[in-house]
Amino acid sequence: MNFFGSEINLLKLFIIALGVYLVAGIRIIRPTERGVKETLGKYSGFIASGFNFVFPFIQTIHRINVTEQMVDVEAEENYITKDNLNTEVDLVVFYKVKHDEKNVMNAFYNVDDVNAQIVTIAQTTTRNVIGTMLFKEVNSKRNDLNKKLKEALVKETINWGVEIVRAEVKAITPPTDVQEIMNRVIKAENEKDAAKDFATAKETEADGVRRAAIKV
Fold this sequence. Notes:
The protein has helices spanning 2-24, 101-109, 114-130, 135-140, 142-156, 176-215, and strands at residues 26-29, 33-39, 42-47, 50-53, 59-65, 69-80, 86-97, 162-173. It is an alpha+beta fold. A hairpin with a 2-residue loop joins strand 2 (33-39) and strand 3 (42-47).
């Protein structure tokens, strides 16, 4: 009787252990994620969003965020324009991992840290692009600069499984002496415009007085 009781207890323990094992293997992948499944360290499948199951201790799921990400590239002063001006540039890059299996694999296996690598590539690319432009072009043709940066980033990250959504230069700061000169030029132009407006107003006023005198 004790023998059968022991068997029943063992069966209960087995069923409980099996239940725990099965529950431990449940993985829920959110709609904003995709997964890479590895079996004993080797790639064994692409995981879409929803309910999934893995064999604990044998299989692992690595989650990949596929929503749009923003990388803030901190401002640096070592960007030299074609006319040899040290310019500080602050920019951001928006990207996202593409949803399909091949690109999710590329994002996981072809690059160690997408964010960190994009920062490095963005800095190098910005330095190269700005080096081909005069400061006045860098400062006035922001859209052209953004376009060139995006095209270069797309080319550099082609095997990373990511889509470069856009690159945006937030601020361009010239050297202090150049900034002072620019401020003086702007001030002079504003004063010149103000003087013109004042002269035009006086001329209009004088013309009105003459017309009034003629009518009288």
